[in-house]
Amino acid sequence: MSREIKDLTPDTQAKCKKFIERCKSEGIDVLITCTYRSVEEQNKLYAIGRTIEGKKVTNATGGSSCHQYRCAFDFVPIKNGKAQWANEAIIDKCGSIGESCGLEWAGRWTRFKEKLHLQNTQGLTMADLKKGKTLA
Description:
The structure is a single chain. This protein is about 30% helix and about 15% strand. The chain has about 140 residues and is of the alpha+beta class. Helix 1 (about 10-25) crosses helix 3. The model has no long low-confidence stretch (mean pLDDT about 95). Strands 1, 2, 3, 4 and 5 form a five-stranded antiparallel sheet that branches. It is globular.
């Protein structure tokens, strides 16, 4: 699993950097917690809350997450040096900032909200990505 912005597609890298800069201009530091993850890593996350004890963290199996296509990243806001995993106000502000950078914020999803997830599909669907279509 990577936290490196360089592991994202070029357009997603640019939007991620813009997101970080805009958050900083609003007085919010953010830590990128995950960019690319392999199919195997995704399947391990999918197992949590299903075959491994814990709360479900994703509805995507390996190959069905934008992380495998290098067009998604997870983040956490930082305040006074501490990760703000549950600070809804700051997380929602970051989600809005992400949207202003041209990213899709998973905090708006209706089926399975992932408030600390942003992605850049450029209008491609998961079916498109699985068929080998690539982002510009």
